[in-house]
Amino acid sequence: MPDSFSADEKVLLSPYVTNVDRPIYALGNLPEEVVAVLFAYYSRSTESLRRNLLKLIRDQEVDLDRRLQWIEQDSGALAEAKEKARQFHEKWVVGYGHSSVAEHAVVHLALEEVSILATKIIEDNRLASYTEKSTRYVIFDPRSYYTPARLQESSCREIYERTVTALLSCYHTLMEETIAAVQARWPRQEGKTEAAYKAACRAKSCDILRYLLPAATQTNLGLTINGRALEYMISKLLSHPLEEIQGIGQAVKEEAQKIVPTLIKYAAPSPYRMETEQVMREMAQEFSGTTSPQEDRTVRLVAAPEDAEKRLVAAILYSYGSSSYAQLTDRVSLLSPQERERVIDEYLKGRGPHDPPLRALEDLVYSFEILVDFGAFRDIQRHRMATQHLQEFTADHGYVVPPEVAELGLETHFEASMEQAREAYGMIRRKHPLEAAYVLPLAYRRRVLFTWNLREMFHFVQLRSARQGHASYRSVAQEVYRELERVHPLLARYMRVDLEEYPLGRL
Ligand SMILES: Cc1cc2nc3c(=O)[nH]c(=O)nc-3n(C[C@H](O)[C@H](O)[C@H](O)COP(=O)(O)OP(=O)(O)OC[C@H]3O[C@@H](n4cnc5c(N)ncnc54)[C@H](O)[C@@H]3O)c2cc1C
């Protein structure tokens, strides 16, 4: 729910945030490492960033006073420099298009009370850093959800509100019951402290119940972005057909202008983007046929490089010799499979536990079509070294039922919630095709095309198959590995993957 601050609190906060009464604000005058800590709190805290900052100030965990005195002393001297910088940027960045200069200016923004649906549209901008409220460690507030302005005036408003509140209240009322059922089903193991066991049971319950959260649920998102990427992001947000996204774009622009006034001054909706989007929707109707029937397959490899081993060997050797690429590929094609394997082995075998593989793996590019619950999509989308093509979030691909739902006897609530959402979605979609997605819970599936280079695939599979991950995206990472093993077994041999099933999750 919106945070409100007393007059004293506002005075304390004002030097560090660009406003004290709106949910989107930029940060300033804070040590960079404190900014990183404040954003990290989003992962585990129900509180706003400003509330956590107040605690830091009051507990005097950071000596902000001295920093502020220093900034105030210098602000007079810097006023002239700031004005000159503005003139420079107007001339070079805006006037002559020397945009890369804008990358040296960085903005930290807190985006609070944004819907989960909106976070995914914001994070579709790859050149930025994000930290989001965790669905595993934070129990979401059932009163905090978004209602699109277009629905406020619509006959669909009642069904929208009824469905979203029913989903959130089911999530909330089942929480205690689920924690108790998890504890009964998986008793504490020897060697685990009571506190760690309780935390693990709570996390597991949140992992199970997150499937019920509607996409309208409001969350918090920390964003760090450079001036050039920010200008592009604002333009994309302002051009988006959803009102919530346009509003976020406008608020981000207003707040960021207080930090980098010149660099994003001209960020505006893009007619090219908006008109093309409209035309492409019509063309897709005309050319791409109907939605395919529901598929059960989660991960499908749709494109893989030809002659992958030869290409990789050529890419590996290229930087260490002086042959042209054409000479090298001719030479590599004459090597025996054993010789090629030797090169690949020497290149990859010495990796320490925290070493990413070296760059040559980027020469191999794979595309995967992935059909997963929105909760898992929410996590997988965060991998930025990729090209992602998202289809709209609809009810057309059905929903998943996590195995724990049956195991803990939650099927009746779960299925009823999913059906209620499907029905509401169908009714709202007829009048408001874009806004209808907000009522869908995270259990509903979304189809996405990911194109990854092999280096990022190594990273993704290792991180997302690890035991501590959510079962839903762990299975995607395992499938990606199996697909690679099927087509390029030699390369898969060097990928680090955890193929174990952990019925007890993290307990
Ligand atoms: C168990 C678990 C829990 C998590 N919990 C949360 C959570 O509560 N909240 C949350 O927001 N996220 C959470 N995440 C997501 C996580 O923090 C990452 O954002 C996500 O996995 C993307 O991976 P990545 O950052 O390694 O980068 P990718 O985007 O996959 O990029 C690959 C690599 O490129 C480099 N790279 C990419 N972009 C940059 C950049 N801008 N600057 C420097 N290096 C870069 C890094 O080396 C990175 O590892 C969780 C992940 C796991 C596995």
From TrEMBL:
Gene3D superfamilies: 3.30.1360.170. It comes from Tectimicrobiota bacterium. GO terms for biological process: dTMP biosynthetic process. It comes from the Bacteria. One of its GO terms (molecular function) is NADPH binding. This is FAD-dependent thymidylate synthase. Pfam families: Thy1 (PF02511).
